[in-house]
């Protein structure tokens, strides 16, 4: 038998000998699925103000991060080894700007045999990495470090499945 997970159930990505495997979802019925993930990047107040007023040298930070997030959602199966390629039916991105934070929420929808939470997580992490890339000149200190910049609290906040 394969390894068990923390709840005592079988792990789905290993075979009986413990080798990695892709889960066979062929017999599962199609269902409408939705996943929502969220994460935050902490920045200097001056950087968030520059994002708001679109005054950063590299261009429109949120528009670029939105494209990056959507691109990541569509390519999750290429970067996470055991993920299935799924038909993405919708992606929504929502940015919330606080004084020293940008929070990104990514909602992914699909109709298929497996969930889309990994796609939502990939959208969040890539979107926030794009923000970091776009603002890094403003965030660096005199030594070229990022003492105020951090990405955290990345998590799935909702996962839904509705069988047809």
Automatic annotation (TrEMBL):
UniProt-listed Enzyme Commission number(s)? 4.6.1.17
Active site feature: 133
Q: Where is the Molybdopterin cofactor biosynthesis C (MoaC) domain?
A: 22-161
**Gene Ontology BP annotations:** Mo-molybdopterin cofactor biosynthetic process
- Region: Disordered, residue numbers: 1-31
Gene3D superfamilies given for it? Molybdopterin cofactor biosynthesis C (MoaC) domain
Reactions catalysed according to its record: (8S)-3',8-cyclo-7,8-dihydroguanosine 5'-triphosphate = cyclic pyranopterin phosphate + diphosphate
> What Gene Ontology molecular function terms does this protein carry?
cyclic pyranopterin monophosphate synthase activity
Against InterPro entries, the record matches this protein to: Mo_CF_biosynth-C_arc (IPR023047), MoaC (IPR023045), MoaC_sf (IPR036522), MoCo_biosynth_MoaA/MoaC (IPR050105), Mopterin_CF_biosynth-C_dom (IPR002820)
Chain sites annotated for binding substrate: 82-84, 118-119
Q: What does this protein do?
A: Catalyzes the conversion of (8S)-3',8-cyclo-7,8-dihydroguanosine 5'-triphosphate to cyclic pyranopterin monophosphate (cPMP).
Give the family per the record: Belongs to the MoaC family.
Q: How does it assemble?
A: Homohexamer; trimer of dimers.
HAMAP family for the chain: MoaC_A
Q: What is this protein called?
A: Probable cyclic pyranopterin monophosphate synthase
User: Could you tell me which species this protein originates from?
Assistant: Halapricum desulfuricans
């Amino acid at each position: 038998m394969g390894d068990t997970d923390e709840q005592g159930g079988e792990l789905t990505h290993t075979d009986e000998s413990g080798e990695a495997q892709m889960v066979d979802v062929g017999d599962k019925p199609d269902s409408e699925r939705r996943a929502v993930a969220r994460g935050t990047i902490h920045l200097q107040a001056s950087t968030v103000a520059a994002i708001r007023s679109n005054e950063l040298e590299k261009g429109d930070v949120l528009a670029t991060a939105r494209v990056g997030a959507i691109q990541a959602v569509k390519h999750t199966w290429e970067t996470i080894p055991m993920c299935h390629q799924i038909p993405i039916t919708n992606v929504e991105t929502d940015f919330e700007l606080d004084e020293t934070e940008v929070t990104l929420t990514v909602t992914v929808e699909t109709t298929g045999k497996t969930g889309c939470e990994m796609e939502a997580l990939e959208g969040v992490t890539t979107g926030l990495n794009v923000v970091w890339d776009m603002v890094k000149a403003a965030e660096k200190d005199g030594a070229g470090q990022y003492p105020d910049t951090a990405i955290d609290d990345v998590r799935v906040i909702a996962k839904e499945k509705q069988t047809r």
